Amino acid sequence: MKIVVMGLGYIGLPTAIMFANHGQEVVGVDVNANVIKELNTGKIHIEEPGLQAELDKALKDNAFKASLVVEPADAFIVSVPTPNHQDTLKSCDLGYVTSAVTSILPVLKKGNTIIIESTIAPRSTEDYILPLVESTGLVVGKDVFLVHCPERVLPGQIIHELIYNNRIIGGVTPACIQAGKAIYSVFVQGELIESAASTAEMSKLMENTYRDVNIALANELVHISAELGIDALDVINMANKHPRVNLHQPGPGVGGHCLAVDPYFIAAAAPANSHLIQQARHINSTMPKFIVEKTVALMNKLDGQKIAIFGLTYKGDIDDIRESPALEIYHELKAMARFDVVAYDPHVNASFVEKNMAKATEKADLVLILVDHSEFRDLRTQDLANMNQMAILDAKNIATKCVDMSHYFNLGLLSRINEVGSVLV
């Protein structure tokens, strides 16, 4: 079977390589010429454990190539970004998806299957993609097959989860469902769950919305506890000892191209009936501002001049900065021009990012931890010996080996900021 994968990003590339390493002929298509060149010379452009070895195998077997041009195939998988429109409820922008599908149509023939993996708003497959495909004169469900199969993988574990996670196969018709199942059964060992396309769309969105709402509850608890002088993290740990309670952990905000984006697609589709979802988005999207306010308050108490920010990605141990609250916090503190702000992140390659921890913390008054990278779990007091004042504001509760420091704060200890006096090393 020949498969064309449209979009070679964090999901499309691993998916393409996975099919290639399970006996299929795969062409990966992207609009970025540099990405195409790098992949064809054996270099991945994203950070994902194990992916380089998988690409090496696929290229060695001549099972994968990258291209700027769409070729005829048996199946087409669309895995392109779906950003937000800049309207009130940040609705789903289908532009990249419809552009990808449109580029497929000239080579589409009877018997082909088109699979949309991109996360899209409810009813997008039936209301927008279906008419586009049938504009060719081919009938979906009879001549060609149209399926929505949302990705459900965790960055850092994508290769494993592509194989073992359950997959929702959302077909426009029963025949479309069977066509989708035949394709994913090539390597998926999880359950292939049959569904209507619109149900599959909503299911993916609700998976991420559930987490966003739960995180918002934890973040609201942080606000309340800071006002009342209560340790929010202790509250969560104790509450979660109840057999039917599972509060999520708070943080500096919610990022990535899932949790920070998907709930808006539901809210925009049904604005009058999505009040809880909209409020959760408001709470989480304003957490960066809250962290900035607490950081400034702590720096004022310390009479400090320099902040070393640890972590810029939207989650730990990856290089992805999409919708990152940490990056938002960095830019906001930088824009104030009140402090010397230095960013340290061992996973991010950018000109403004310091790659050496000692240089980042030199003469710093505060380390602001915004991401739970593994490197920060082993942070010791001696690692920060070159600071001007040894203070930490840990928004991820990860630097637990430094808790002996009198000037250590996490999201459960924010009420203590008012008690701070300057402390010199």
Spatial separation of the terminal alpha carbons = 65 Å
Summarize model confidence as the mean pLDDT: 95
The share of residues in helices is 25-40%
- Write the H/E string, N to C: EHEHHEEHEHEHEHEHHHHHEHEEHEHEE
For this structure, what is the CATH class of the largest domain?
Alpha Beta
Count the helices. How many?
Answer: 15
Structure description:
With 425 residues, this protein is an alpha/beta fold. The protein has two domains: 2-199, NAD(P)-binding Rossmann-like Domain (Rossmann fold, 3-Layer(aba) Sandwich); 230-425, NAD(P)-binding Rossmann-like Domain (Rossmann fold). The chain has 15 helices and 14 strands. The chain has helices at 12-20, 33-40, 51-60, 95-104, 124-134, 158-164, 174-184, 197-228, 232-239, 262-269, 275-285, 287-302, 325-336, 357-361, 374-377; strands at 2-6, 25-29, 64-67, 75-78, 113-116, 145-148, 167-171, 192-196, 306-310, 340-344, 353-354, 366-369, 392-394, 408-410. The strands form two sheets. Strands 3-2-1-4-5-6-7-8 form an eight-stranded mixed β-sheet, with helices on both faces. α8 (197-228) packs across α10 (262-269) and α12 packs across α13. It is globular and about 75 Å long. The chain starts with a strand and ends in a 15-residue tail after the last strand. One of its GO terms (molecular function) is oxidoreductase activity, acting on the CH-CH group of donors, NAD or NADP as acceptor. Keywords: NAD, Oxidoreductase. Residues 308-401 form the UDP-glucose/GDP-mannose dehydrogenase C-terminal domain.
